[in-house]
């Protein structure tokens, strides 16, 4: 399983977005992924780009920047961004025009972290942020919700129940 496969679906849609959706659907088959693929296939890339911007760039409740969901605009988010930028460099991951805490960077980082660090990082940061993103997308009745449900399920499989329940109480 590679979390990097999800990253292109959380980046701004380009001409190969539909192909990435199909590839990810084949790698992670599920009812939710089928629903997402059906909804996306019906839209041209330009419409997906507009929907992506409206969904992820214009509302803090549905941003893909996990640090925002965890810390808002306080100093702790800045420290988190610095930590993530260092982790991306350490693990040979290039940044895009997005901040280091964007899910399109965080998912490939999960693939590169040692198992114990990956589990802790997922439990402490990624799952709580994705939970808030899920809630925001649910309220907005977003086309992207089934995608986030799939990603959340895959990441949850990394985290033993005792770790994930303990991470929410820090």
Can you walk through the features of this model?
The chain is mainly alpha-helical. It contains 9 helices and no strands. It has helices at residues 17-27, 31-41, 45-57, 66-71, 75-90, 103-112, 115-140, 145-156, 161-167. Helix 2 runs antiparallel to helix 8 (145-156), helix 6 (103-112) packs antiparallel against helix 7 (115-140) and helix 7 crosses helix 9. The longest helix is centred in the last third of the chain and has 26 residues, at 115-140. It is globular and about 40 Å long. The model is unreliable at 164-170 (pLDDT under 50).
Descriptive key words:
9 helices; globular; disordered C terminus
Give a quick summary of the entry:
By secondary structure, the chain is an all-alpha fold.
